């Protein structure tokens, strides 16, 4: 159980309180569950960290049961329902709500199969642009109102301990006042403890009353571990909405516990006319060092 509270944010007068209550139960081979409540007032501004949303009251709860059958192939089956609801403090209106039911199957080599279905509610008080189109096409906008929609998801994933691992996630169902179908395959190659490569591709086909569109997101990452003190991580990401290729490269050196040195490169390239030629739009190189003093 946990209780947290923060009040009197410097520089703000009134409506700057945040508090909550959290209760959790964990029994790895039986039931796990949680009940959470929190309230973030309109002017809450944490000195450290961040708050995703303020001016809200949020409830959440969930329970899951794990069964371990005496089977040579199946290691565990787990699942259960979860619920969350967020309300605006100003008028008590619904901001979002979800009711989810999921079940997961694991075998003895850590392959897993997951099924879930969710019923969602979204209360919009302002128009919400979900797709920005290029002229002369028009943006796709969800109008204010209360929306209720259902969807189901299935995924299969092989164990990451293998040299080659792969998986795919498929989602289909309603989306605001329309429909959405999402597919996300992924692939990983780990030939040794010193190198890994990951590739994923996500396609969302969305059709709502204001228009239809397709989004695509490609992610490619590598990790090179030269030694216990030196590693190099690279991430490249492209999406068809912005036609931007983003590159993040991070070199991390830990000569001794408590001493960390980073060299980070960020670079964005864009191909607005979609002719296969990318142009640099932003780039930066950052160095960071941290040292922990012990006494």
Walk me through this protein's architecture.
The protein is mainly beta. It is built from no helices and 18 strands. It starts with a strand and ends with a strand. 0% of the residues lie in helices and 68% in strands. Strands 1-2-3-4-5-6-7-10-11-12-13-14-15-16-17-18 form a 16-stranded antiparallel beta sheet, with no helix packed on it. A two-stranded antiparallel ribbon has the order 8-9. Strand 16 and strand 17 form a beta hairpin.
Question: What's the short story on this structure?
Answer:
By secondary structure, this protein is an all-beta fold.
Helix content: under 10%
Order of strands across the biggest sheet? 1-2-3-4-5-6-7-10-11-12-13-14-15-16-17-18
Oligomer: single chain
Q: How would you state the average pLDDT, rounded?
A: 89
Beta-strand level of the residues, as a percent range? over 45%
Instruction: Give the ordered list of helices and strands.
Output: EEEEEEEEEEEEEEEEEE
N-end to C-end Cα span: 32 Å
Largest sheet features: 16 strands, antiparallel
Number of strands: 18
User: Class by helix and strand content?
Assistant: mainly beta
The best one-word shape is globular
Number of helices: 0
